[in-house]
């Protein structure tokens, strides 16, 4: 830790910490983007490549050798001796099907140890899963004491919406996601097919490598099931691209009327933040964290979905190899495609309503996912957490409310 310096008025400057964090996409959304601290991101060992049972822990690269004040981890508990704060998106610790094992108990001891200075859920959905999962644990009160909520963030431009009614048609919908079926790509191409049949001027952009089947945990495994949906990628009102730079993805997104995330399973959905920050309402399913920041017919379209008590699609644990599951999945695609198209046509028929929806989407992003607000939170949290750790006291995380737009 760098010692504080004296300011012009004799006041101590705020301390600057050395923080270690993982690389990859999710952590960036859960980091202080304008921080005064020195944050170094390093590759981590994907222990799930060794065994799926080990995916709940990791080791960050020790090279170059350097001492860090704190580790800010995401999803995987960092092994070592440095104090850490843990951000997570669903289950913590990650140990699916091994909850009674010695290794799972080892992970729980890491969360209960003094090394763990805080456990940050990135949504109410994640917080609910954590509390439900550990409600019978003998140290539940200690776990709950460490738990706090902090939404992800991104840099949001301070700009006006440039949309005009001249851009009303054709209606442009964009889907982004490599897990094509899980995230809702099948719904997108089926919407395009329905629009052609009904003479609706709608175009769908699909940005995806079209990974289906075993690649995802929600897809039917029946042979040939996805052949029909792959063929729809060739429709005249569908444009399919893949492996393009993020700058190009954002360009497509900014020119869309709606983005599509009719997902069968998504814990958060970072694309929602990117969409709302660009005045683009999201069509999503009422599962995971999406109901926390998509308000139906106000800042987006939220389609109902049958879910469990923790907000997951109720068929997620079904046997995916059966024809019955394939039929359930296909019916759900049909329902979502018809509902989404009907909602879109109704909303686009009232341009004042649509423009208000765009504005509300942007205001949601500004109020809930501001990188400036997140930086203030994390910069002070790091210092408070580390001071508490060094003083040997039980850390009480800094709570912050997130107002819904």
From TrEMBL:
Recorded superkingdom: Bacteria
A Pfam family recorded for this sequence: Glyco_trans_1_4
Name this protein carries in UniProt: Uncharacterized protein
